[in-house]
Amino acid sequence: MYFENLVALHIAIEKQCPQETAFKYLDRLLDGKSRKHNNKPKFIWTSDDIEDIKRFRKQGLTYKGIAKIYFTTDDTIFQVLRRNKKKALCRGPIIKKH
């Protein structure tokens, strides 16, 4: 367990990704599900991440500032918010029935 933590920390530093992503990447490697060892781990955006990004934007943080938190680019943050906005529009308005 201790060794896996060190390896995940090394992956996070080397690949410049969040620790959670490094652990998921390591789990895939150990399970034999990932064959591409040199690729950067793929970060999966959770609804909590998206809500945090929205909150950061409301607080006045720039895309670049938020990107530093998530170890990604400002364009990626913009795209995540844009995709999320499109999904919300596709669902349509919420109609409450009384």
Please tag this protein with its features:
98 residues; mainly alpha
Give a verbal description of the structure:
This protein has 5 helices and no strands. It has 98 residues and is mainly alpha-helical. The protein has 2 domains: 1-44, no CATH class; 47-91. α1 packs across α2 (19-31) and α4 (63-70) packs across α5 (74-91). The protein is elongated and about 40 Å long. The mean pLDDT is 78.
What is the structure about, briefly put?
With 98 residues, the chain is mainly alpha-helical. Helices cover 66% and strands 0% of the residues.
- Contiguous uncertain segments of 5+ residues: none
Outline type: elongated
- How many DSSP H or I helices? 5
- What would you report as the Rg, rounded to the nearest angstrom? 17 Å
DSSP strand content: under 5%
Question: How far apart, in Å, are the first and last alpha carbons?
Answer: 54 Å
**Main pleated-sheet profile:** none
Helix and strand element order: HHHHH
| Mean pLDDT over all positions | 78
What's the total count of β strands? 0
The helix/strand class is: mainly alpha
Helical residue percent band: 55-70%
Count of domain modules: 2
